[in-house]
Amino acid sequence: MYKAIVIGTGPSGLTAAIYLARANLKPLVIEGPEPGGQLTTTTEVENFPGFPEGILGPELMANMRKQAERFGAEFKTGWVNSVDLSQRPFKLQVEGMGELVAESIIISTGASAKLLGITNEKESMGRGVSTCATCDGFFFRGKKIIVVGGGDSAMEEANFLTRFATEVKLVHRRNELRASKIMQDRARENGKITWGLNRTPLEVISGDKGVTGLKVKNNETGEEEILETDGIFVAIGHKPNTDFLAGQITTDELGYIIVKPGTTMTNVEGVFACGDVQDSKYRQAITAAGSGCMAALEAEKFLDGHMVHDWSKTL
To answer: Which cofactors go with this protein (predicted)?
Structure first.
C-alpha cells in the first residue's frame, strides 16, 4: 500500500516525485523501459531555466531523480500492464512486481514520437535525427535540414526551422499533403522551404560527425537517391502512452488524457495526469515539470482527508 504512486519518470513524473517526497508522502515511482523519458535521447538542453550554459538531457534527468531520492522517493523499474481504477485504493498490475495498491496515482507516462522505422534512424537520435524542432532547431543554425511528414505538425516544424536553417526540405511519401490548407499555404510561401514529395524515406545516412543524408525512393521512377542534409526532423505525430488504462480514464480521440481545465485532475477522483500524456500542444520539458508540480500539490490536497488506509498503524 502506497499513499501515492507516480507512473513515469520524465520531467513531469520526477518533479511530482520531488514535491510528494518533500511532503513526506513517500511516493513510489515506477520507471518503464526508458527511464527519464524523451530527454534522455537528446544531447544539449539549452532552454531549461537555471542552466545558462545548457545541460545534457540525461544529466538533467539524473539530477532530478537524485533530488527526488534525496527526499525519500522510492524508484522501481517495471512495466504497468493494467490498472483497476474502479474503486479506491487503486490496484496496479506491474510486470516483475505483481499487484501494487495506492491511495492516489499520478500518470506521467508521456507521449512517444512516432518514428519512420527506417535503417539507422534510432541509432542517429540525438546525432542529427530529432523529433522536436523547438528543442533542437537552434543546433542547426546555418545548416540544411530535412523535415519528414505531411501533416500540420510537419508544416509548423518546417516553418519554425527556417529561423535557423539555410534550407528546409519537406519530404513526404505522397504528392498530396494531409496538412490543412492554411498550413500548406504558409509553408509554400516560405522561400526557405523546398519540396521532396512522392518520396519514401529508406535509410538515414550518417558519418563520424552525424547525419549527412537521407536515402529515399522516388515513387514515380522507383529510383533511389540520397538527399544531402545536416539534420532530419521526423514530424509524423505522437502517440500518448495510455493503452494500459484500458479506457478507464477519459481521453480525446488521439488518446491524450483529458484533465479538468487549469488542473491535472482526471475524471477519476484521486488520479492525476501531467506532462505530455495530457499535453498535445506544448510538449516542453519546462511545461511538463510545471504540470508535475501541479499534480503533486493536487494529490497532496486530495490525500488530506481522503485516506483509505489507517497509516497511523503502519510502521
So the answer is: FAD
* Contact criterion met (CB below 8 Å) for 275 and 262: no
Residue 265 is given by DSSP the state: B
Q: Which pLDDT band holds residue 7 (cuts at 50, 70, 90)?
A: very high
Selected catalytic residue, list 84, 136, 152, 208: 136
Please indicate whether residue 136 is annotated as part of the active site. yes
What tens digit of pLDDT does each residue of 19-63 get?
999 999 999 999 976 666 667 666 678 889 999 998 888 899 999
From 135, 274, 276, 279, the catalytic residue: 135
Rounded to two decimals, the pTM is 0.78
CA distance 54 to 299: 32
Between 37 and 81, name the one with better pLDDT: 81
List the grid coordinates of 273.
495526469
Dihedral of CA atoms 48, 166, 132, 11 in degrees, nearest 10, equals -10
Map residue 73 onto helix, strand or coil: coil
Sheet holding 167-172, edge to edge: 129-130, 231-234, 144-148, 167-172, 193-197
Q: Which of 84, 132, 274, 310 is catalytic?
A: 132
81 vs 174: CA distance, rounded Å:
37
Cell reading at 31: 520507471
Known catalytic residue at 274: no
Instruction: Return the CA Rg of the chain.
Output: 21
In the chain, what are the domains?
A: 2-112+238-313 (3.50.50.60), 115-234 (3.50.50.60)
Reduce the DSSP state of residue 87 to 3 states and report it: coil
